[in-house]
Structures are given as structure tokens and as C-alpha cells.
Amino acid sequence: MCGIAGVASFHPIGDRLYDGVHHLEYRGYDSCGVAFLNHNHIEVRKDVGTVDEVDSKETIRHLVSNVGIAHTRWATHGKVTKENAHPHLSCRADFAVVHNGIIANYRVLRDELLKKGHRFTSETDTEVIAHLIEQGFLDCGDVERAWVNALAALDGSYALAMISIHEPQRIFCARHESPLIIGVGSESNYVGSDFNAFIEQTKNTVILEDGEYGIVSKDSFSVKSLRSGEVLEKAITVVPWDSELSRKGGYPHYMLKEIHEQPQAVRNALAIASEQINAVADTMEAAQRVRLLGVGTTYYVALLGQYLFATLAEMDVPAVSSDEFRYLDCSDAHSLILAVSQSGETYDTAMSLRHAKERGAKTAAIVNVVGSSIARMVDQVVLQGSGPEVCVVSTKAALAQMILLARLALEMGRRRGTVSPTKWSECEAALAALPGEIETLVNEKSGLIRAAAYRHAHVHNWLFLGRGVYYPIALESALKMKEVTYLHAEGMPGGFLKHGTLSLVDDQLYTLVFVPPPAAGELHALTMSSVEEVKARGGFVFGFIFDGHEDIFDERLVLTPTHELTAPFLPLVAAQLLAYFTATALKRNVDKPRSLAKSVTVA
Ligand code: AGP
Fold first, then answer.
1. Is residue 2 among the annotated active site residues?
2. Which residue has the higher pLDDT, 26 or 124?
């Protein structure tokens, strides 16, 4: 949720602190700030607003220092105010901390510290940490011991970075259930919530685990066990992404760039070695119960997987939204939980996996971010290789995950005899053709979709209907519309409509219907009856269709017919574009929609 960056260097750090926190803004962007060593005191510059807004008022870029930490906030405890923005200082301003996570016992700790005379200036849970370290230092006179003792007193989740006037060359950092990594550079070292904090400086990272803390200075770093204080040998992970990939590259928004990158994301998903897919298939085959797990978009990805496993492999593999998983979890040693996560840091998904592991289940995951918490905690990981996805709204990562689930479902179907060799070859060919088909759609239909989006930007309520495998596509498309336009869009199975929601239909409610190709037979016919039901009540129906002869619609986007396996992905891409252009028509903050964050690392 929040983003943390830190630099210790032989050289001035202002521009790198600014870049670090700027590249992390997708994690949270309601306020930001920096703390740095200025001669023998800590200076804090912070305010509400984006990194650029705060920089223009407070000057982050040109600050003069060699050691500093920075933060961009997504508020949990306390309103969006300058006082609540991080960093937070202790009473004597000897210690400054930045934090991502939630300290569950902060009220108890604050009451104890108040009794000892500490004064608080914010409503945040984070501020107690600065005071706790200061109190520990007053008691023992040693920064590292005070740091370790403070961490031991915290309940909840944290990624933390701290600087102190008593150790002016060092940044202390630690994590518990929230990500934090160290960047190893030349004449500089870094801390960050993820690689983006220092992506332009170094690809060499050390990943902190729960129960460890790091001490970073300009020419060295060490990682120690929180329990024993012992120095730990840590491997360096080289990040395969470069900074060029995470720039906008001429597009007005990352969302549009990432929609355009989908052909490559699909190619990358198809290039993943079959051995990796087969290894997960082996575990699936051995398991008595398999569940697919995700939340938000990745829940819809998982739901699409459920349809693919049912239709291609005749397997019952329910998808569960990870925020609800713990209430439904019946896993045991014969279960496999297969999670899907772009960031690999989503709290709900990570906690669900932990829950299932504790019950003895095997775990696997499809993840985009190398070295992320989920990638490291599962028994088997498939790294989807989609490259950095910067826009808060997931597009290319989600599509690549769908492709990987399709590959897995095909493999299970092959093993179970439900996918014949001929069907296998047909499906392989269809998947191989998909990147080109998406390219054509994006190149040829963007103008039409843009015009439709601008024409209908006044519509406040949308119903997105789909049946069968087009149902998760409708749900995911509605989520895209909601999160980036702030308009109401409700995804629903076509057949469900007449069981209640039909009463909403009038000329103000617009309906987008995901119509399968006529070759889908009954699925097509039943979808068309939902169209009739809406039309009969005077509703406006926009059809994403594959057959140009169908003329019942008020408006149509005709897509090029393709194989039944890959056909649903074309209207999904069209719906991403519709959401994107509607958002631009409404002048929304496309890459950072209000109230959202890219990695949701809190419960
Ligand atoms: C996607 O557009 C959303 N921003 C959100 O639903 C996201 O998919 C969800 O939070 C899961 O994130 P993850 O893939 O990083 O685990």
C-alpha cells in the first residue's frame, strides 16, 4: 500500500530519493515525505499530495544529504493530513521512521509511552514506533538494541525504515508481513518496498524475510536475525526488469501502454517452459482437492480458470476470493491451493496461502513479481514474465495469468483424455495466434471504442452481462470500468438477470453484453435471450459481438471471429479500452485512481 525508499550514499541523494518514492507512487499517493540527515539533526519535509506536488512545495529533489528515507502514503490510520504523512519523528527528533502496514497494538503502546512523557503529533499507528525506539535508546543507549526491542514489541504488519542522529551513516530496516528489500549499488545502497524504489540505480537486490532486519550504509549492508542477532548470509537476486520497461514510452498513461503490451505479455506466457506447467499439473493430479485463489482482478482470473478446468478437463476446481478464503478453508495434506497474484504481495492472498499451509496443503502460485512474498512462500511458482505493470489497474498481467491457466487446463485435459490430440493442436494454434489478433484489435478498433466511450461517458450505471466463460470476462470488465472511471458497473451472469436485477432496467441503465460467437450454439442463443430481455424493457444494449449480421443491438462492436478458447479474450481487451477511454473522457486519474493502490498489503 504505502511505498518506502531509502538511500545511503557517498554522493548527494536528493534526486534518487525523489525518483525512488516517485516510482513507488502506485502503492499509495495521498501524501509523501522525506527525512534526511542534515549535519547533526534530522530534517523532515512532507505534505499532502503527490510526490511532484510535495516536491514543488518542499523541495525533495535538491535536498543535500547522504542518508535519507522517503515514503508515499495510502492512509489507513488517520486522515490525509500533513501531520499524518510519514516520516514520523520521535519527541527529541533523534529518530525518524517510515512504515507500511498496520500496528495492531499501537493504542496500548501509545498509552504506555504517554505515561512516560512522550508527546504525539499525529493520529497514525506509525508514530509509536519512533517514540518506542527513542524510549529504548534512553533506556539502553544503543540504537541497534533499541531498534530490535521496539520491533519485538510490535504486533501487526510492518515494513520499516529508520534513521537516527545517533547512527548518522545508517538506515535500519525490517519487515513483518509487508515487503521490504535492499538494493546493492556502487558507492550507494538502497532500501525499498520493491525494485521500483531503485530500478534506475541497480538490479542487485537482497530480499528481507520476516524475522530479519537490515542495516544499510553507503558502502555496506548486513542482514541479521531478529531473534539471535546473528549475521545472515543472503543471496543477491538480480532483477530481470530494466528501467526502460517501466517508463511510459510515449503513451499518455501506463494503462494504455500496458494494454498495448498485451500481445507481448501473452507471448511471454506462451514461452514459459512446458516443464513448469507440467510440474504444477503433476501436483494437481496428485491432489484430492484443488482451489484457485485470487482477489479483485485475480479472483476473476481464478474464476475464468474454474470455467476452463470444467470445460477443458472436466475438473471441479472452485475459485475462492482470497479475502473470504479463511472462512471457507477445508484444506488438508491432500489439497492444492493455486494462487494468482500480479504483485505477489497481496495480504489477503498471502494470508490465505499461509492458512492453507498451516493445514498441511500444498501451495502453488502464478506471480508476476520476481522475489515477491507469495513467489517465495509457495511450494511451486510460475513466474509469468509480463514485465512491470505500473498502472494500478491490472490489464496485461491479468490476461497473461488467464493464458497460463488455459495452458494448465489444457494439460490437465490432455492427461484426463478430455482434450484429444487434435483438439490440443487446435488450441495450441489458437493460443499462438492470439497475440496477433490482439494487435489487430487494438490497432483497428481503438478509434471506434474511443468514440463509443466519449459518447457514453455520461452514463452512470452499467450492467455487464456474460454467460459461461464470458461471465468472469464480464465481471473483470466491470471492475475495470469501476476502478478507473468511478462509474457504477455491475458484472452479472446473463441468466441471473431475470432473478431480480431486471427491475433496474430502464433507459438510464446501459447494458454491455459479451456475446459469444454464434458457433458457441446454446451459449450464444441464451446470451441473446438476455439481450432480448433488456431490450424488451427499453434498455440500451451495447453488444461486443463476433457476427456482424446481428442487428438487435443499439450499438455494436464487431470483433473478428476466432477459436472458442481464445475468443473471450478479445472482448476483454475491448472492454479494457472502453474503460480506459471513458476514464480519459471523464479526466480521471487513470494510472492512480482515487482510493486505490497497486499492492494491497493490509487486511
Ligand atoms: C486490479 O485492477 C486491481 N487493482 C486489484 O483488484 C488487484 O487485482 C488485486 O488487488 C490483486 O492484486 P495482486 O494481483 O497484486 O495480488
1. yes
2. 124
